[in-house]
Every structure is written in structure tokens, then in C-alpha cells.
Amino acid sequence: xxxxxxxxxxxxxxxxxxxxxxxxxxxxxxxxxxxxxxxxxxxxxxxxxxxxxxxxxxxxxxxxxxxxxxxxxxxxxxxxxxxxxxxxxxxxxxxxxxxxxxxxxxxxxxxxxxxxxxxxxxxxxxxxxxxxxxxxxxxxxxxxxxxxxxxxxxxxxxxxxxxxxxxxxxxxxxxxxxxxxxxxxxxxxxxxxxxxxxxxxxxxxxxxxxxxxxxxxxxxxxxxxxxxxxxxxxxxxxxxxxxxxxxxxxxxxxxxxxxxxxxxxxxxxxxxxxxxxxxxxxxxxxxxxxxxxxxxxxxxxxxxxxxxxxxxxxxxxxxxxxxx
Length: 324
Fold this sequence. Notes:
There is one protein chain. 56% of the residues lie in helices and 21% in strands. By secondary structure, the protein is α+β, with helices and mostly antiparallel strands. Strands 5-4-3-2-1-8-6-7 form an 8-stranded mixed beta sheet, covered by helices on one side. α4 runs antiparallel to α6 and α4 crosses α7. The longest helix has 52 residues, at 157-208. The two termini are 74 Å apart.
């Protein structure tokens, strides 16, 4: 009995250690941020770009780069590559072609072995092209389609009147059919306009509801918090540009001057009024936490006002589809 209790005790301790490790991993995954960094440049008509994400360095690394017109991208765990984004992958067509070539090669080998086993077998010679064959009879010309005879013109006065009345009747029927078609299209357009008007009135009424305003404020607040959490914490853009025209270059500088209070910390422009040139570089870095994403998802899925608004919109879509 004592041995059984000792074994159960050891098993319990092991299970608690495993549970603690799982909880530790989940806490690290939720609260430890994923760091990201991006950089790029364009000088001498040579583009360069690189983006990297790492987590608990060097546990997980993901990077994508473009250098010398050659893209690269890999996922690494503890420094070992586990996935290559741009590695050549065999498609089904290439696999089928390889299998077909392999089968053809095997068949050729089998045929070669058979001919070696039977050297006395006679090979059939191809027919002599000079041997005269039966003369070919010229193809008979296809019968020419007979021209449709025109309707005989009316000869008597009464026949002319009847023919004229018949033509007018056909034209009037055609006009009436077109008017009927126009009327049907007009009714369809009227129904569509009425439906759109009702939809606008419905959604305007939904927008005026207190539930909608409360849900919109909560969603806006959650998205702003998410943006503050994931936006780049540092970054800079440096541009050296000139259009070749001093006037247009000066206009760009004027626009930049108006926007300087908002972007002056992150954007620097060096103008060139003499020649046409476009080059520069940039970089940015920041971090993302899973907790920030989970918080927004929780608000969207379980907030009372957002759930009520979502049900209203879903019911409206169902009724609209039922009417259609």
C-alpha cells in the first residue's frame, strides 16, 4: 500500500509540473510581446526591404527580405529553419510529368531487353513512299446553297394596300412590345429604388439607436487601444527627391511644411531643385502582444451592446435575403 501511495505521489508531482509548464507557456504566449522590425531603402535603382518578427529570441524568428531582386523568407525555431516561404515546390503537373517520363523510360528499357532476347526477330520496314497508291478522286464540290427567293411584290392595288397595312401592323406591334419592355424595366428600377430607400431608412434608424451608439463607442475605444498597442514605437522615413522642375519640387516642400507638425518627427525630406531624383530609406519597429488582441476579441464577442447590434443586423440580412 505504501508503494502504491508513493507511485501516486510521484505521478501527481509530475502532472503538477507539466500543468505548471503549460500554464507558464500560456502566460508567456499571452503577455510576452512579439517584436517586429522593418527596414528598406532605394538607392541607385536598387530596392532593398526586410521585415522580421522574433519571439523569446532565439525561440522563434520569422523574416522576409528582398535583396538584389531575390526574395527570401524563412521561419526559424532555435536557429533551425522549419519553413521556407520561397523554396521551389513541386506542383501536381511537374509530379505527373516526372512519373510519365519514368514510365516511358521503364517501357523503353523493357522493349530494349525484349529485342536483345530475340535477335532473329524481323523488324518491319516502313512502307516505301514512292510506291504508287490508288489515285485520289477529287473532292466533289459542295452544292451551292440556293438563294432564298424574295417575296413576290404585290401587283394589284388591293394587294398593295393589304401589304402596306400588314407592314404598319408589324411595326406597331414591335413598338408596343418595346414600350411594354420599357415599362417592365421601369417597374424593376422603381422596386430597386424603393428597396434601397427602405434600407437607408432602416440603417439610419439603427444608427440612431442608443444601443448602436454605445456599441460604436466601445468598439472605437477598443480599436484605439489596440492601435496604441501594436503601432510602431519608433520609425523614420528619409527621402531625397527632386522632380526636375523647381516649381513642382517647391510645391511638394510646401505640402510637407503644412504637414510637418504631424509628421515632422517621422519624415525628413531633402529636396533637390536641380535634377530629378527619387531615393530614400525607412525603418520602423514595435511589438504586439496576444493579450491586446484577445481583449478586443472578447469585447467584440461578449459585450452586451455589440451582441444586441449584431443580432439586429443579422435578422435584417435574413429578412432581406428572404424577400429576394
